[in-house]
Amino acid sequence: MTESRSAEDGDGRHDSVWRHFAMAGLIAALLVPVSFFKPFHLVEGRLYDIFSTIAPPLPPQPGAVIVAIDEPSFSEVGQRWPWPRSLHAQLIESLRRAGAKVIAFDIIFSEPSTEEADRALASALGPDVVLASDDVTTLLDQGVQTTRVNPVDPFLDAGAVPGVTSVDLDGDAYLRLMPRGPDGFAAEALRLAGTPVAPPPEGALIQYFGPPRTYPTISYYQALDPETFLPPGRLRGQTVFIGLSLKAATSADTGAPDTFPTAYTLTTGNLTAGVEVQATILDNLRHGLYAVPVSRLAMAGLIVLSALLAAALCLRGMSRRAGFLAVLGIASLLVGAWALLRFGRIWAPPALPVGAALGVFGARFGLDFIRERQLRHAVSEAFSRYLAPELVAQLARDPSALKLGGERRNLTILFCDVRGFTSMSERLKDEPERLTTLINRLLDALSGAVLAERGTIDKYMGDCVMAFWNAPLRNPDHPLRAVRAALGMMEAVGELNRTLRREEGENAPSFAVGVGINTGDCVVGNVGSRWRYDYSVLGDAVNLASRLESLSKEFGVSLILGPATAEAVRDHYVLIELDRIAVRGRATESAIYTVVAPADGRADPAVAELEDLHPRLLASLRAGEMEDAARLVERCRTLAPSLAGYYDRLAARFARIA
User: Fold this and answer.
1) Disulfide: which of 169, 356, 470, 544 matches 307 by Cβ 3.0-4.6 Å?
2) pLDDT over threshold 90, residue 52
3) Alpha-carbon gap, residue 63 to 65, rounded angstroms
4) Does a cis peptide bond (omega within 30 degrees of 0) precede residue 226?
5) Would you tell me how many other CB atoms lie within 10 Å of the CB of residue 71?
């Protein structure tokens, strides 16, 4: 019998392991097609931008010096663009005298200018000069037409070499792809310098070495007179690239001529001049620093491998140890992708492998969570036959709460009682079902107002509701929330009365409530015996809240606030003092308040006048100045019709005294 049971357990574990790895395989199978989805390649491109700028490999020394056609040069030359080609001829002669080995213009001279200027430039050109050319692609109905735009023939006849400056931008307009043509601008400059290179593999990515102006740069006007502006030998043996490099309007938002977003645009927000991009391509070719992406087939293998490794790490479920291994595994994938790029010049985008691992970890966590919820639900179902559902839910979340005791905490307590419910019960004593339906509808409306303000409903005592705030979850603004809940209760009761009148006519029952709210220190926790207990509150603050609720009928108002609650919400509501009552534990009497209007109600002249007159009324009453108090009562009753019941009681008090 034991051997049979062991065999069954072994088969169960085997099935569980098989399903676990099958889940990992399914996740990998869902992600592999994404790697062939071209729009997703933009995500991989952005990741390449980030990874390639972390401790990038640098060439031993920059392969080119840039002569920048920049703002200082425009100021010194004093002419609008394009400049006379005779000026470029002077530049070539100056660079040769300074010892430049190769001179490359990232400027397309595709149209003739003046005969004299073109003749001057042609006479300065030679086999040490590269002139930019361009491939223009045109979409036609019958296909794609590519046209080569070369420098004018006299310049090529003079010995200058054309170099294609065209580049292919990614879908997000970032420049990442290495140009593959053997006659590219940078490739031709290397060939003239005596360092011919093979074209990069298809899909190779440019490795940038820094933000704009990373390469050594001198201004055009300085290169025109290197003896004056440059140190001796500064350009000797150098490859010199000449092109536009304007600092103005080179942000990613505004753009500028011949500038491109690069990997460093993500962090700097600036674009890189095309001439500096060509210098970067030169060093990529010269030192083999470009990155070669792995094939899509290899990418699929990495996705599957990551999913299976993640499955192996969480085979026994998501525990703390598995969570640590999951974080370590994800970090390893990211660091591995960077290391492969940094030292192997191979780009294996980590997005999908990491996504596969996270998918497996997340799926296993989700399954474990569902199983845990099912187990807790089963336990809750069993215990709910003996304990309150709220307590069962708390015990399911925190088994350590399964003990008597509590903690001292500052709370706001609310008591709400239904006015006239006893007489209504007498009238409906022969209709218990209707009475039950009515009280349930009323309690539902009152409870909704409490829950809307994140209160905790302690208990229902017949037609009375007790609730509190700031436990078990903390609410820093608990007095304000309690007052808002009380006002919401009154609105809910009014809406219920209107609904009942629509349903039953003018003879429908009408509800009214009285609410007392107090704030103070209480003991909150599990109160009762070891056989039965409830999560509740104890303390004098609770007793005072209950007393305030009962006083609301005596004072003829729907809401009474204790002193601490009133002080906490004074900035949010217009309050008036109703009276002063004796509070247990205090030698002096404490003021109690009711709400007149929201704080912005002070803009109403009637509210402002009431707020001014009412304290004078109470002062006159306490000083025994009955004539003045009677006059103020009449005025206040006019200003606040909603408090007419309260002022009627004050007037009756005057009558008794008189």
Assistant:
1) 356
2) yes
3) 7
4) no
5) 13
**For residue 131, what is the enclosing H or E element?**
strand 129-140
Reduced to 3 states (helix: H, G, I; strand: E, B; else coil), residue 159 is coil
C-beta separation of 205 from 48 below 8 A:
yes
Give the C-alpha separation, 549 to 559, whole Å.
8
Query: What distance in Å separates the CA atoms of residue 302 and residue 34, rounded to the nearest whole number?
Result: 13
Q: Locate tokens 């007037």: which residue? A: 651
* Per-residue tokens: 159: 């010995």
In eight-state DSSP terms, residue 530 is S
Choose between 588 and 296: higher pLDDT.
Answer: 296
DSSP for 190-219? HHHTT---PPPPTT-B----SSTT-S-EEE
Identify the burial level of 609 via C-beta atoms within 10 angstroms of its C-beta, where 0-12 means exposed, 13-18 middle and 19 or more buried. Answer: middle
The DSSP line for 74-89 is HHHH--PSSPPHHHHH
The string of pLDDT tens digits covering residues 601-637 is: 999 999 999 999 999 999 998 888 888 888 999 999 9
Query: What is the residue type of 217?
Result: T
Is residue 106 within 8 A of residue 66, CB to CB? The reply is no
Please answer whether residues 291 and 337 qualify as being in contact, where contact means their C-beta atoms are separated by less than 8 angstroms: no
Please tell me the pTM assigned to this model. 0.57
Structure tokens at 436: 């039950």
d(CA 360, CA 308): 8
- Both tokens of 568, joined, read 């906490």
How many CB atoms within 10 Å of residue 440? 10
